């Protein structure tokens, strides 16, 4: 995934709003979002290396990971998808960050950018596979993470200007917000360094899927996960059916 857009605590009823594109080789197999066997995690799955690149758990914790360009790849290191999966095993973004930092200190992975969020906190971890990972707290608002730069170093000016409807939709109907997020994900006009659009089409690789994630307020967060199994300019977003199962006596 090469673009992750996070609106954190912009809406009181939806503290986490995400649009994320995964850029990969077209022949890399993956499975669409599904619940884990214990019903605690909702996430797609990479069928080659295992793990996931994006997901949310029943406690309302969101995690999304990208690789980090410009660093050498060591095929002997663990899959970065394990990092995202481990984070989704935690009950808060703060504890997820601590778990990830401890994990890479013991078993280094290849470089990554990781976004973590819950109703209270939003955190980014940049890890270049050489130095110790450090958490960066994010203020409420719009944040953009890519595989090319640290958080908010790319598209921060372009997205609010090009997609002013995104901010307006955050104040209005949920469906209008989803439509605005989808417009960002499938855009071909906003360019990154190297003349790359948000929705990418290259020979053999490009944007292979897109996710829209809405996470409601605690204590029992409502989650909407929409998934497009291809470039969002062509594939249709479909809602993942079902909801999280809570212990007896707790409302879902």
Could you explain the architecture of this structure?
- This protein has 252 residues and is an alpha+beta fold.
- The chain has helices at 81-87, 93-106, 158-162, 164-169, 174-185; strands at residues 3-8, 16-25, 30-35, 41-46, 54-57, 62-67, 112-117, 122-127, 134-137, 141-146, 191-192, 196-197, 205-215, 223-228, 238-239.
- The strands form three sheets. Strands 3-4-5-6-7-8-9 form a seven-stranded antiparallel β-sheet, covered by helices on one side. It has a six-stranded antiparallel β-sheet with strand order 10-1-2-13-14-15, covered by helices on one side. The chain has a two-stranded antiparallel ribbon with strand order 11-12.
- A hairpin with a 7-residue loop joins strand 1 (3-8) and strand 2 (16-25).
- Helix 1 runs antiparallel to helix 2.
- The two termini are 30 Å apart.
What is the H/E order? Answer: EEEEEEHHEEEEHHHEEEEE
Number of domains: 1
Biggest sheet details: 7 strands, antiparallel
CATH superfamily label? Penicillin V Acylase, Chain A
As for the CATH topology, it is Penicillin V Acylase, Chain A
Average predicted local confidence, pLDDT: 88
Number of helices: 5
Uncertain spans: none
CATH architecture annotation: 4-Layer Sandwich
Main CATH class: Alpha Beta
How helical, in percent, are the residues?
10-25%
Write the layout of secondary structure elements.
Layout (H helix, E strand, L loop, with lengths): L2 E6 L7 E10 L4 E6 L5 E6 L7 E4 L4 E6 L13 H7 L5 H14 L5 E6 L4 E6 L6 E4 L3 E6 L11 H5 L1 H6 L4 H12 L5 E2 L3 E2 L7 E11 L7 E6 L9 E2 L13
Antiparallel strand pairs: 1-2, 1-10, 2-13, 3-4, 4-5, 5-6, 6-7, 7-8, 8-9, 11-12, 13-14, 14-15
Helix pairs in contact: 1-2
